[in-house]
Amino acid sequence: MDILKGKRIQVRPLECEDLPFRVNFINDTRVSSTLGFDLPLSIGRTKVWYGKVIEDRTRKDFTIVDSCRGNVVGFCGLLNIKTDVRSAEVYIIIGDVSYWGKGFGRDAKKILTNYSFSELFLNKLYAYQADFNERSLKANKKLGWKLEGVLRDDILLGGKLHDRHVHSILQSEWDNDPIYQNV
User: Which GO terms describe its molecular function (predicted)?
Assistant: First the structure.
């Protein structure tokens, strides 16, 4: 797969040399507060994980890079890709907190959505967000994703149960709104 390019970011396939960034980002409690990972993450465990997922056809993992500075700013991907119903779950992690609130996650979601519909020919994308992740919830709304429902007390984060919001978008909704076509 080629590098997917937006105005400010590039999304490229996850490589082994990206794993130290992934470990550092996820071990940052500001980042992991919405993720539900078993912490602390180690580079050894992450390499084992990478060895398993690199060949998994039901997922695609990417690295998000700032086009101007060349910095790795986060990770994103598609999980649970189902070719029969043409759907997948989207995840976005902006791990470099200096990039928070600047639209980099939203840009990554635009790129993944365009890629999923135009290259993978998926019909539906969905994502889960913790009830307190205001930035992610706001980005979904700006991009035209629809709230499908709320899973009550569905995830344990910081020792407390939280609701998770499920948002989705269909290819027909994305294609019919030209404002979302240019990343």
Answer: acyltransferase activity, transferring groups other than amino-acyl groups
